[in-house]
Design brief:
Blueprint (H helix, E strand, L loop, with lengths): L3 H6 L4 E6 L2 E6 L2 E5 L1 H13 L2 H6 L7 E5 L6 E5 H26 L5 H7 L2
Antiparallel strand pairs: 1-2, 2-3, 4-5
């Protein structure tokens, strides 16, 4: 069993970037490519998890969360703390996408959108 000190200091690297209509998720040293549909599947799966249920349940199966990355069975299993971070990361990215969409519908082009269109 890991000591509490190790659990607090071990931080899994999580990054989510977007380039050319594709998303790249980095979990630790593994990189996963997602198209928009896969991104949405993961986002809705993350939002569909009841965090209170995971936080309040002391059973071992609630210590880790399986997160689907595609409809074809690709998934990662994360400790609860990393799951919460990933959920926040996807939530921020979804907010960015929604904001970009709203601005584009108003005829305002963001720097990122202009850069993607010029490629």
């Amino acid at each position: 069993m890991q000591s509490l000190e190790n659990q607090v200091t071990d931080t899994l690297v999580l990054t989510l970037t977007r380039a050319g209509g594709r998303f790249e998720l980095m979990v630790g040293e593994k990189t996963f490519q997602q198209n928009t549909c896969e991104f949405m599947l993961t986002y809705w799966s993350l939002q569909g998890k009841d965090m209170d249920e995971y936080m309040n349940n002391l059973a071992n199966e609630f210590d880790q969360v399986r997160v689907p990355l595609s409809g074809c069975g690709r998934a990662v299993t994360l400790p609860l703390s990393d799951f919460a971070r990933l959920r926040s990361l996807y939530g921020q990215r979804m907010f960015d996408l929604k904001l970009e969409d709203m601005l584009m519908r108003q005829g305002i082009t963001t720097y990122d959108a202009a850069t993607r269109q010029s490629r």
